[in-house]
Write a structure and sequence with these properties.
The protein is mainly alpha-helical. The protein folds into 2 domains: 379 residues, Na+/H+ antiporter like fold (Up-down Bundle), CATH 1.20.1530.20; 79 residues, Regulator of K+ conductance, C-terminal domain (Alpha-Beta Plaits, 2-Layer Sandwich), CATH 3.30.70. The chain contains 20 helices and 4 strands. A 4-stranded antiparallel sheet has the order 1-4-2-3, with no helix packed on it. The relative contact order is 0.13.
Amino acid sequence: MILYLAILMLIATFSTKLAARLGVPGMIVFLVIGMIFGSDGLNLVQFDDPVLAQQISFVLLIFILFEGGFSTKKKLLEVAFRPAFTMATVGIIITAVTLGVTSHLILGLDMLSALLLGSIIASTDAAAVFALFRNKNIQPKTAATLEIESASNDPAAIILTVAMIDLILGKAATPLLFFANLGWQIVAGIGVGYLIGKVGPYLFNKVKLDTSGFYYVLILSICFLGYGLADVIKGNGFLAVFMAGFWMGNSEFIFKQGITRFLEGIAAFCNVMLFLMLGLLVFPTEILTFWKQGVVIGLLIIFIARPIAVFVCTAFWKYSFKERLFLCWGGIKGSVPIVLATYPYVAGIDQGNFYFNIVFFIVIISALIQGSTIDKLAEKLGLLVKKKPYSPYSLELLALEESQCELLEYDVKKDSYLINKQLQEIPLPKDSLINAIVRKNEIITPRGDTTIKERDILFILVKYENKDDLLTILEEGCLDENVQEE
């Protein structure tokens, strides 16, 4: 069993290169690999426990969401939070109702079953969105809107799904209780996330651990603490984890560079394991029996339900028509709808397998159609930004004590005033130093007469208190004389 899992992970890791060349999302490849090795394929790994899959998925999503929040910049959240939050709440309800009604009218599903299906598939998936956008150069505001939406729409989707299951089982709550529960989950999730996101950096800076390895243990503990504390007070743990990651990622604390790299690795591992596991869980022969309904529902959500929700929810914010089109197309489905699709089965609803198999089929359609064309659409709509210069090298300041400095990485853009200037001509703030320059994949040792070229990558050691001044110099070429290098 362990050997097969190791082989699975190796194949999945190497297959990412093939997926990139084919323009197919990695999640599709991982799902297919899981299906091939699973009970309905080669039968090398037997896994058919939806309850266990649900529990494992929650653990994996904790780290995926924390890393997603950790890498989200504060200025992007300030710009995109309100529209993204509206899409994550009101948009989920609009999507679920629209899809439920259209599925009822077109496919003849009974209304309650159709609304349950709409609730399950309404949410976009953080694991899929983060994985797809990580190496894409999408316009930051639009990408941030989709990322924040995908990280925060789980409460509405989960509550809607549970409410519909209760309604089918004759245990329905009142509308007032439903909205009160939704509001509390969101408020508690954000509140716990803020608390943990502020406590985390304090612990890193004040607790002196013997070796760097224990800082990795500390960050894992913080991830679990965010989810666990929110869950205890009936808040949404996933939202709490995302917000905790966001506040920590926008704070300064010791060993931050090492933690950043560690979280990137953990998130990549969790993405691979999540989709491999879901691939193992499914039976392809059962999925194919629902392909007609799956195609119809998939097209309904892509071309009708999602666009209606996006255009309604963004009506009060400044998005261009092209940006709204991209938001419509970026509603990619992934692991969360599949996990939610296990709820009816676990609750004992008749035909529970119907929801799981049809949702799985829709996720594959979404990933293939939307995921494989998202960058092409962004280019067509003019929403791609220029790719950052690639560097095979990275300089990091790994501090195990509280430091007054950080190592800043700066890309020299084509319109920068720095181009063709010598380093000695740049009025750096006091106690700042350019440590290295990467040019065309080569490291250049900086000297006073070294000339800066377009697309150079500068690594600059700077004190925290002078960081804003340094950025002003690099962007505008001016600075108050009293902080210039003497």
